Amino acid sequence: MAGHGGAPVGDDLPIADNEFSSGKTAVRIASVAALGGLLFGYDSAVINGAVDSIQEDFGIGNAELGFAVASALLGAAAGAMTAGRIADRIGRIAVMKIAAVLFLISAFGTGFAPEVWAVVVFRIVGGVGVGVASVIAPAYIAETSPPSIRGRLGSLQQLAIVSGIFLSFVVNWLLQWAAGGPNEPLWFGVDAWRWMFLAMAVPAVVYGALAFTIPESPRYLVASHRIPEARRVLSTLLGGKNLEITIHRIQDTLEREDKPSWRDLRKPTGGLYGIVWVGLGLSIFQQFVGINVIFYYSNVLWQAVGFSADESAIYTVITSVINVLTTLIAIALIDKIGRKPLLLIGSTGMAITLITMAVIFANATIGPDGNPSLPGASGVIALIAANLFVVAFGMSWGPVVWVLLGEMFPNRIRAAALGLAAAGQWAANWLITVTFPGLRDHLGLAYGFYGLCAVLSGLFVWRWVMETKGVSLEDMHADIMTQDLPTAAKEG
User: Which CATH number is 228's domain given?
Assistant: First the structure.
C-alpha cells in the first residue's frame, strides 16, 4: 500500500485501511449499492421471455419488435449521460432512490401495457433506470471503499448484474411453466409474460428501501462543503485515525470555484483528457466482443447443434450460471493480481474462443430452415468455445471494466466521465444488438468481427490502461490530470 502513486506513507492511511477492511460496513454498503446492478441485469434480460408474446398479442412485425426490445438500451444511454451530472448536484443516494422509482414505474407500466407503444415507453423508462444504476453504483462503491479491497467490492456490481440476468431467466421460466406458456393467463387472468415484468417491482422496492440505510459518499459531501457530515461518514468507514488528512486530500482534488460540468472533461489545451478516452475505449470494447449476442441470441447457437427450443432455453440458463461463477473468480483475483493482467488474460481467452467459433460457423452448412447446422465434432467444439468465451469474459472484462470506471477517474470529473463512458457502453450494446439479426446468415463473419475486437481490446489495454490496484482515489488525481495519456499509461 505504502507509497503508491508517489504519495507519502502517512497519507495512504495503512492503519485505518486495515481497520476498515476487517469490518462489515464496507461490504454492507457496497452490497446495497450493487443491488442497482441486480435490477439492471433483471431489466435487461426480462424481455427475452416475453418477445414472442409481445409480437403475438400486439400483432407487430419484426422491425417494430426489434425496436421494442432495443428501446431500453436507448433509455439506458440517456440515463447514463445524465446520471453523473445529477449525482454531482443532489448526491449519490438520492439518485439511487430515483433509479428505484424508475424501475418500479417500468415494472407496472410494461406489465399492464395496453398497446405496443406503451411497452416501448415504459421500457425506455426502465432503461433510464438501468443507465442511472450503471453509473451510480460503481462511482459510489469506489468512493466509499478502501484501496485494498476496492476491486473486490467494485466487482459486486458485475456479480449483481449477472445474478439479475440469471434471476430473470429463472423467474421467466417458472412463470411460463406455471401458466403453461408465456402467453397463457396466470394469476387474476393476467398473462404470464406480463407477470415477468410485474415481478421486477419486488427488487425495485427493496432497493429503494435499502437506499435509506446507507450513508452518502464522503467525497460528495466534501464537494458540497458538508464537512461535519463527511467527517461523521469517514469515521464510520475508517475509524478515527487520519480523518483530517483524508478530508484535506479530498478537498485538494476537488478544489474549484465553479459548479461541475461537462467542460471538466476537456483539457485546458483542448480536447478530452486521455483518461476519458480510455474509459470510452474500455466501455466500447466490452460490448464489441459480442457478449450480449451470446445472451440475447444464444438459442440460435444451441439449435444449430440440434437442441430443441426448450433444451436451448435450459442451456441459456446454464450459460448464465457459468457467468455468475466466473465473476466470483474475478472477485477473488482482482485485488491480488490487479486489473490490467485480468483484462489481458480475458482478451487472450476471448480472442481464441471467438476466432474458433468464426472458423466453425464459416464452414457450417445452412439447413432448409435457414439455420446453420453443425454436425459431429464441430458442434461440440462450438459449444465448448462459446462457454469458454463466457468464462474468459466473466472473469475479466465483465467485472473489471466496471471496477475501473468507478475508480480510474479523478474526483473532480468522476461522475461526468463515468456517465459518458457508460453511455458509450449502452450505445455500443445497442449497435451490436440491432446488427446481429442481419448477420445471422453470416455467423462466421459476425464471430470473426467479435474476435478481431477481442484482439484489439488486448492491445488497447496493454498500451493505454493504467493499473489502479491498491492506489487511493486521491493519488490518481495528480498523475492523470497533469500528464498526457501515453505517459500516464506507461507509468501504469
Answer: 1.20.1250.20
**Whether the Cβ atoms of residue 164 and residue 320 lie closer than 8 Å to each other:** no
User: Residue 265 is which amino acid?
Assistant: L
What is d(CA 178, CA 192) in angstroms, rounded to the nearest whole number? Answer: 8
Geometric angle at alpha carbon 268, from 262 and 272, rounded to 5°: 50
Query: What domain range is 189 assigned to?
Result: 4-491
The reported pLDDT for the residue numbered 295 is 67
- How far apart CA 204 and CA 36 sit, in angstroms, is 8
Rounded distance, CA 468 to CA 492, Å? 8
In degrees, rounded to 5, the angle at the alpha carbon of residue 406 between the alpha carbons of residues 100 and 224 is 75
Task: pLDDT band for 490, please (50, 70, 90 cuts).
Answer: very low
Among 79-93, 198-212, 301-315, 433-447, the minimum mean pLDDT is found in 301-315
Question: How far apart (Å, rounded) are the C-alpha atoms in residues 26 and 270?
Answer: 39
Dump pLDDT digits (tens) for 135-184.
Answer: 898 889 988 887 778 888 888 888 998 899 889 888 988 898 888 878 88
- Would you tell me how many other CB atoms lie within 10 Å of the CB of residue 344? 18
The most confident of 212-216, 263-267, 365-369, 485-489, by mean pLDDT:
212-216
Contact 40, 200 (CB under 8 A): no
Q: Is the pTM of this model over 0.70?
A: yes
- The beta-carbon contacts of 303-309 under 8 Å, at least 24 apart in sequence, are 303/371, 304/364, 304/371, 304/372, 304/373, 304/374, 304/379, 304/382, 305/374, 305/379, 305/380, 305/382, 305/383, 306/373, 306/375, 306/379
Q: Can you tell me the distance from the alpha carbon of 450 to that of 61, in angstroms, rounded to the nearest whole number?
A: 28
Domain count, the chain: 1
pLDDT tens-digit series, residues 252-274: 766 654 455 666 677 777 777 88
Closest CA to 279 of 157, 158, 401, 399: 401
C-alpha–C-alpha distance, residues 343 and 282, integer Å: 10
